[in-house]
């Protein structure tokens, strides 16, 4: 249930409502108060009320509207918000701003190395990515690696290099944050906070990214074998904690065949568009683990309706410190950017023809 509160409600009316909600829920469940689209809302996981409780609730002066949402996720559901969420990336830093999601936005291409390796590698790649026509630069400063003996990223030094790359190219940057304590420092440098697959259900991290005062957009990658409900509930943690700017990222799920690194679940894109108002972007690099598959799966993702792509690019993929096998060259990226524009244009034309007909 989501209750939207009258903007004019007095503190006494609010307290009365809260007391009633505590009584109705038997003091058993969290009652979350947050803001969405400028409105104060209360969320609690309660559906069936007896008539007495229902009447008492309807009579509360602080209540503007009560919306019963059937799914376990509430604020991120399409049932709650019919319009697509549109997220502005790059606010508060000197760079271009980029819109992700929303009816009129064209697909966004995020590209860059898996990891920030050194200044020269990052700046060369950033310039190449900008010249190729991509919109946002990616690069991991904190790397979640399977083995503790693999390259772990440059840490805070990597964040400084990303800021410098933004300054040089004008592109907003996205980088991963792995710990709740690091959200503030990463948000100082990044335009999007990336929460990686391995941390999709790191609840303290989700809450910290949600509570963060600047409300930096968060890109939440699907867990290695997460169901769509688990993924949307993870997004709900961030939104319920106060940050509505969440982008979902499909990056493939675990299966049995080692031919590809993961299985790209493209059917999740149209399905998520039914279930949620949040934008969805696809990562064909981690999904396939094979650079030769990236162009085709990029086209397929756009055709499936994704709001964008995140692609690993390296000036010399074979010498990359991380994920070289799935990294493409800047020249290959340029072709993907061109193809994306063509495809998105065709799809838009088709939509406008259909709406006229
Ligand atoms: C990444 O994008 O750098 C990354 C580590 O991806 P994932 O969390 O999807 O494995
Ligand atoms: Mn990678």
Topology at a glance:
Blueprint: E1 2-5, H1 11-24, E2 32-36, E3 39-43, H2 51-58, E4 63-67, E5 87-89, E6 98-100, E7 108-112, H3 119-131, E8 136-138, H4 156-169, E9 173-176, H5 183-189, E10 192-195, H6 203-211, E11 218-221, H7 228-240, E12 246-250, H8 268-275, E13 280-282, H9 284-288, H10 294-303, E14 308-312, H11 330-356
Parallel strand pairs: 7-8, 7-14, 8-9, 9-10, 10-11, 11-12, 12-13, 13-14
Antiparallel strand pairs: 1-3, 1-4, 2-3, 5-6
The structure holds phosphoenolpyruvate and manganese (II) ion.
Manganese (II) ion is lined by residues 114, 286, 312, 322-323.
Question: Any low-confidence stretches, pLDDT <50, length ≥5?
Answer: none
Mean pLDDT: 95
The helix-and-strand class reads alpha/beta
Overall strand count: 14
Q: How far is the first residue's CA from the last residue's CA? A: 38 Å
List SSEs in N-to-C order. Answer: EHEEHEEEEHEHEHEHEHEHEHHEH
Number of alpha- plus pi-helical segments: 11
Give me the side-by-side strand order of the main sheet.
Answer: 7-8-9-10-11-12-13-14
Residue fraction in strands: 15-25%
Helix content: 25-40%
Q: How is the biggest beta sheet arranged?
A: 8 strands, parallel, barrel
How would you classify the quaternary structure?
single chain
Apparent shape: globular
Query: Which ligands occur here?
Result: phosphoenolpyruvate, manganese (II) ion
**Which radius of gyration do the C-alpha atoms yield?**
21 Å
Explained architecture:
- With 357 residues, the protein is of the alpha/beta class.
- Helices cover 36% and strands 16% of the residues.
- The protein is built from 11 helices and 14 strands.
- The chain has helices at residues 11-24, 51-58, 119-131, 156-169, 183-189, 203-211, 228-240, 268-275, 284-288, 294-303, 330-356, and strands at 2-5, 32-36, 39-43, 63-67, 87-89, 98-100, 108-112, 136-138, 173-176, 192-195, 218-221, 246-250, 280-282, 308-312.
- The protein starts with a strand and ends with a helix.
- Bound molecules: phosphoenolpyruvate and manganese (II) ion.
- Phosphoenolpyruvate (PEP) binds at residues 114, 140, 144, 176, 196-198, 221, 251, 286.
């Amino acid at each position: 249930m989501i209750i939207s509160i009258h903007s004019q409600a007095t503190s006494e009316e609010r307290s009365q409502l809260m007391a009633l909600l505590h009584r109705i829920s038997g003091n058993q469940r969290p009652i979350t108060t947050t803001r969405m689209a400028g409105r104060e809302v209360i969320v609690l996981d309660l559906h069936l009320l007896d008539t007495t409780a229902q009447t008492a609730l309807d009579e509360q002066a602080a209540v503007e509207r009560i919306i019963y949402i059937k799914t376990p996720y509430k604020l991120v559901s399409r049932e709650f918000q019919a319009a697509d969420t549109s997220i502005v990336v790059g606010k508060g830093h000197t760079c271009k701003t980029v819109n992700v999601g929303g009816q009129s936005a064209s697909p966004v291409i995020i590209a860059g190395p898996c990891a920030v390796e050194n200044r020269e590698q990052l700046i060369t790649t950033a310039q190449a990515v900008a010249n190729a026509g991509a919109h946002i630069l990616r690069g991991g400063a904190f790397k979640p690696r399977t083995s503790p003996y693999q390259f772990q990223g440059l840490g805070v030094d990597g964040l400084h290099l990303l800021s410098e790359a933004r300054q040089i190219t004008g592109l907003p940057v996205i980088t991963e944050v792995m710990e709740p304590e690091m959200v503030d420092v990463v948000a100082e440098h990044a335009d999007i906070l990336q929460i990686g697959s391995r941390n999709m259900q790191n609840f303290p991290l989700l809450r910290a990214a949600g509570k963060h005062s600047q409300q930096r957009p968060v890109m939440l990658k699907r867990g290695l074998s997460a169901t769509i409900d688990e993924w949307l509930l993870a997004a709900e943690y961030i939104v319920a904690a106060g940050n509505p700017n969440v982008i979902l990222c499909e990056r493939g799920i675990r299966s049995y065949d080692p031919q590809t690194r993961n299985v790209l679940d493209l059917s999740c894109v149209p399905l998520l568009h039914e279930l949620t108002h949040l934008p969805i972007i696809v990562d064909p690099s981690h999904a396939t683990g094979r650079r030769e598959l990236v162009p085709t799966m990029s086209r397929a993702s756009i055709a499936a309706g994704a709001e964008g792509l995140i692609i690993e690019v390296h000036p010399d993929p074979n010498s990359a410190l991380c994920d070289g096998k799935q990294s493409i060259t800047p020249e290959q990226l340029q072709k993907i950017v061109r193809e994306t524009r063509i495809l998105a244009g065709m799809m838009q034309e088709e939509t406008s023809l259909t709406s006229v007909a």
